[in-house]
Amino acid sequence: MKNPDDLDERVSEYLLKIEHDRQAGFDRRAEAASVLNAATGLCGPVLDIGVGKGNLAIEVARRGFDVVGVDTDPEALRLARALAARAGVSARLRLIEADAAALPFQDGSFGAVVSMNALHHLATAEPVLDSVARVVRSGGLVVLTDLSAAGLDWIGKRHLEDKGVPHPVGLVTLDAALAGLAGRGLEVRCVTLTRWETIAVLRKPSPVMEVDSQDVAGHARQSL
Ligand SMILES: C[S@@+](CC[C@H](N)C(=O)[O-])C[C@H]1O[C@@H](n2cnc3c(N)ncnc32)[C@H](O)[C@@H]1O
Fold this sequence. Notes:
Blueprint: H1 7-23, H2 28-38, E1 46-49, H3 55-62, E2 67-71, H4 74-87, E3 93-97, E4 110-116, H5 126-135, E5 136-147, H6 149-163, H7 174-182, E6 187-193, E7 197-203, H8 213-223
Parallel strand pairs: 1-2, 1-4, 2-3, 4-5
Antiparallel strand pairs: 5-7, 6-7
Helix pairs in contact: 1-4, 2-3
Bound molecules: S-adenosylmethionine (SAM).
């Protein structure tokens, strides 16, 4: 009989599930790699919001970055910890139970904020977008990716087969998140499509230094 508390059993089940999906064409590790390949110039430390079972965060840590992952689901975090240990990246990945709408980090704490397939799970966008724009440092990247129509269709069918209930889809779309972050001063650098995902990379501009024109003229005279 299955024991729901047996972590090893849950890890094996999850690995079987993702291998089954990979053979059917939905490869989570390849999708995570596509996200990171689109995010050129990524700097750490990296915050992953809605880290779930850690597919993206583990890939980020494999590339040598220090990562903090937050999620509201303690069970997903437990599994993510076990999967990170199997992947040999526990030392670079810290997993914390926290709501993306109220991130417990200081302003500008992260070189990048990333999130994969979590937007459509959010109950509300505005406080999450406020937090994301706040915790990424100036010059840092925000990398948001969510399922395309084909991806949502795939996951919808898979979820119904597995759990007998429809896959939850909230009201927060990638387009709405991009518009919200643009309204908070971030610049969209690129949007890339894969078979299953739409990946957007944004940058928080560095503050423009205000230079007094008289100082510049004076400095130029002195240097002559
Ligand atoms: C499909 S999973 C994400 C998959 C994950 N990013 C990966 O790479 O494997 C969506 C996750 O978003 C989390 N989530 C939903 N609302 C959240 C919130 N307000 N703050 C943090 N996590 C949230 C859910 O608990 C769930 O684990």
